[in-house]
Design goal:
mainly beta, Neuraminidase, Immunoglobulin-like, 2 domains, 33 strands, about 45% strand
Length: about 450
């Protein structure tokens, strides 16, 4: 299980970053970090604000213990591209990889990643295909699922182990017919405790296009099949070529695709009627996949409000791929384009995060780091003459400096809660209406210099 650090640890790191931005070479809020791995990076797993893992095309499992600033290679599985990595707790973790020909490998650690050993039986090694969309889910220290998110291939694959990966069995998903099974295409999966969703589509010249879901509420012992959406025309060419799903709670889930999302509150028993287009205007697109179109690659929520959505655009005219990223602070109701998109040509990204900081894996061993607290994106010289008083307040604080022109206040979710503009040496801010907690105040003077201060409202 991916664990979250306490907020104060993250905030300390962000404040430190805000004071050393130039040395960190931030560009419009993105920090580009080289892990030292060769080729593509695939999955990323944040245990807390400090401890982060990535898996690499060169077989490497790399760890950072300082929030992504530096990386150490802990293991290399020769001859395998490591596709997925996840941890149940600080000690127990699993990593999944693929090697030629049709040879899967599952690694396990019980000592916080210091040592990795091969597990799994022959059935698993011969069942894993060459797909960058392998997903690994843990329901317990010894209970895990592997989902082959097969793209432009047939038959969604779901494998289950209850003995820590020593043996696996195929999960018998309740397809309507053999024809549907062999024409089904896996799209996404999500497990949270005993609640799980597997999303699939079907459609060819003999079958009507359809998007469906398998839902379990008992850890995968039983599954029910539900139709989510049917469409006319060539199903694979438009909205659901790739999707991602996020569980909001028991039987509550949100399915994301390139234009937006739709929700369920009963485990998809009742097909959702409305398709939301929350970020349609931010996405580039025509109706053909082999055109100018954005497609979801990965999506992560650190809570039910704060999330990051990563996708790519394939430009038909130039045959190039560009990485796009959007962030949300309101649970996906609105999505904001970041100031700078990813400097990458990857077609598959992976994103994970802690609280308000997100990490995206990319090509050439690069990890991108971005905080939704945009205060860490400042690249001006810090304004050192400004003071704030008191730092522990019932609501009213006073800023004192020279030629102050603007103050903005953010909460710990990165949400802007107050803006004040004055041309003055002293500025008063009233946070009485805000809830108790930690806040950041970003202050700018006439010369464009900026500083960040933190206060605690009682």
């Amino acid at each position: 299980m991916k664990r979250h650090a306490i907020i104060t640890t993250l905030l300390f790191l962000l404040l430190a970053a805000a004071g050393t931005v130039k040395a960190q070479q931030l560009v419009d809020g993105w920090k580009k970090i080289n892990t030292g791995a060769e080729g593509n990076l695939y999955d990323i797993c944040c245990l807390d604000a400090d401890n982060i893992w990535v898996c690499a095309q060169d077989g490497g499992l790399l760890k950072s213990n300082d929030g992504g600033e530096t990386w150490v290679r802990k293991h290399t599985e020769e001859g395998y591209a490591m596709r997925a990595i996840t941890f149940w707790d600080a000690q127990v973790g699993y990593a999944l990889g693929y090697g030629e020909p049709n040879n899967g490998v599952l690694l396990k650690t019980t000592d916080a990643g210091e040592n990795w050993m091969r597990v799994a039986d022959e059935a698993l090694s011969q069942s894993i295909t060459d797909s960058p969309y392998l997903e690994l889910f843990l329901l317990g220290v010894d209970a895990l699922y592997i989902y082959q998110n097969l793209y432009f291939t047939r038959t969604p694959g779901l494998l289950r182990s209850t003995d820590g990966g020593l043996s696996f069995e195929w999960v018998d998903l309740p397809f309507e017919s053999t024809q549907e099974m062999f024409n089904g295409e896996a799209k996404a999966a999500y497990f949270e405790d005993n609640e799980g969703y597997c999303i699939f589509s079907r459609g060819n010249q003999d079958m009507d296009p359809m998007l469906g879901a398998f839902h379990t509420g008992d850890g995968g012992q039983t599954w029910t099949r539900h139709v989510l959406l049917t469409e006319d025309g060539d199903y694979y060419s438009d909205p659901f070529s790739m999707v991602k799903t996020h569980a909001l709670g028991k039987s509550d889930a949100r399915l994301f695709y390139y234009r937006g999302y739709f929700d369920t509150h009963d485990g998809f028993v009742t097909p959702p009627n409305e398709v939301h287009t929350a970020y349609e205007d931010e996405m580039t697109g025509s109706s053909s996949y082999f055109g100018d179109k954005s497609f979801p690659s990965d999506m992560k929520f650190t809570d039910n409000l704060c999330g990051c959505h990563v996708s790519n655009v394939f430009w038909m005219a130039t045959a190039t791929v560009e990485g796009l990223a959007r962030v949300t602070k309101d649970g996906g109701e609105t999505w904001e384009p970041l100031q700078r998109d990813l400097d990458s040509h990857r077609q598959v990204f992976s994103v994970d995060g802690v609280d308000t900081t997100f990490y995206v894996t990319s090509e050439n061993g690069v990890v991108y780091k971005r905080s939704l607290l945009e205060l860490a994106a400042v690249d001006e010289e810090p304004l050192t003459t400004m003071t704030v008083s008191p730092t522990l307040t019932d609501g009213v604080v006073t800023l004192t400096g020279k030629d102050l022109v603007e103050a903005t206040v953010y909460n710990t979710l990165g949400q802007l809660v107050l803006t004040k503009k004055e041309d003055t040496a002293t500025m008063t801010l009233d946070l009485s209406s805000q809830p108790s907690g930690l806040y950041f105040i970003s202050v700018t003077d006439q010369n464009g210099q900026r500083c960040v201060k933190k206060i605690v409202k009682q």
